[in-house]
Write a structure and sequence with these properties.
Blueprint (H helix, E strand, L loop, with lengths): L1 E5 L4 H12 L4 E5 L7 H10 L2 H4 L5 H5 L9 H10 L8 E4 L2 E4 L3 H8 L5
Parallel strand pairs: 1-2
Antiparallel strand pairs: 1-3, 3-4
Length: about 120
């Protein structure tokens, strides 16, 4: 089943949910505030993507925590993602052993035009 990971009040997550509802594609929504993404889940995502895409360096949390100053390596970034899920770029869409990170309507249109989820 298609899963959407994120937080309810994120604009990008809301756009993704609206897209899937409009296409009548069934999904499960997982809110990071209720169910945290663990290191194991993050490792699964990284087997399908990369840390640069998943790690949100543009958000408020990143700036507030001054993580740029720490010059983190990939292993440290993964630990931070598990500790502070708001550092994960949203939404994270998983389906059929694939992943799309971030809201990208043209990519959604292409990937889900024949989706039978």
């Amino acid at each position: 089943m298609l899963k959407i990971y994120g937080i309810k009040n994120c604009d990008s997550v809301r756009k993704a949910i609206k897209f899937f509802k409009a296409k009548e594609i069934t999904y499960e929504f997982i809110d990071f505030r209720e169910t945290a993404a663990t290191i194991n889940i993050i490792a699964q995502w990284l087997s399908l993507s990369d840390i640069k895409t998943l790690f949100n360096t543009r958000g408020t949390i990143y700036r507030t925590l001054k993580l740029k100053e720490l010059n983190l390596n990939d292993e440290e970034k993964i630990k931070w993602l598990a500790k502070e899920n708001m550092l994960i770029k949203r939404p994270v869409i998983t389906f059929e052993n694939q992943i799309i990170i971030g809201y990208n309507e043209p990519k959604y249109e292409e990937e889900f035009k024949n989706y039978k989820g």
